[in-house]
Design a protein that fits this description.
The protein is of the alpha+beta class. The protein has two domains: about 1-40; about 50-170, 3-layer Sandwich (Rieske Iron-sulfur Protein). It contains one helix and 13 strands. A hairpin with a 2-residue loop joins strand 5 and strand 6. It is elongated. The relative contact order is 0.13. The model is unreliable at about 170-190 (pLDDT under 50).
């Protein structure tokens, strides 16, 4: 059967199917192209590189570790209290501070500071950390995560937009010598 204009039923269904497949192909290509081009077009949110004030430095006496809270810089109105984040501030001397994330490096449970023993303790699996945040015992394989800090107008500020992770702090970076200069020549399994 031929429709007016010289198209057979088979030709019309073939063209309709091709048009439908073309529309589906374009709809599938849009997210794939956006994913491929995202590193080029990606713009960081303004809160990502934000410095947040924890308060005046007088609030953190030298030699003491205190709990402080701040509001996440990228918080939305619906976040409520979940956008209030706690951290531990240790004033070592002068204008040098250590600001630790409250989460254990093992599974993220909140650690507590015990001034009697000068240890941070994790209630979940018994992880313990020294006052400087390094691992003391338990299942965590590393020390507490540390925020970068600065002092501006007599106020302690931390870089709070990015969550501290291994390798994010230049102070936590260390190099291991694997060149063999101080190693004996042995097979790897010996």
């Amino acid at each position: 059967m031929t429709v007016d204009g010289g198209l057979s039923r088979r030709q019309m269904l073939l063209k309709t199917a091709m048009a439908f497949n073309g529309v589906v192909g374009v709809l599938l290509a849009v997210p794939i192209v956006r994913y491929i081009l995202s590193p080029v077009t990606k713009v960081r949110k303004p809160g990502y590189d934000s410095w947040v004030s924890l308060g005046p430095i007088d609030r953190f006496p030298p030699g003491e570790t205190r709990l402080a809270t701040y509001r996440h810089p990228d918080a939305q109105a619906l976040d409520g209290e979940t956008a209030d984040i706690a951290c531990w501030v240790r004033h070592t001397e002068g204008e040098h501070f250590q600001v630790f994330a409250i989460n254990c490096a093992h599974l993220g449970c909140p650690v507590r500071w015990f001034p009697q023993s000068s240890l941070f303790m994790c209630p979940c699996h018994g992880g313990a950390y020294y006052a400087d945040g390094s691992r003391a015992s338990g299942p965590p394989e590393r020390g507490l995560f540390e925020y970068r800090f600065r002092i501006l107008d007599e106020k302690l500020q931390i870089e709070a937009g990015a969550t501290p992770t291994p390798g994010s702090s230049p102070a936590s970076a260390s190099l291991v010598n694997i060149s063999g200069s101080n190693m004996t020549k042995r097979p790897p399994c010996a």
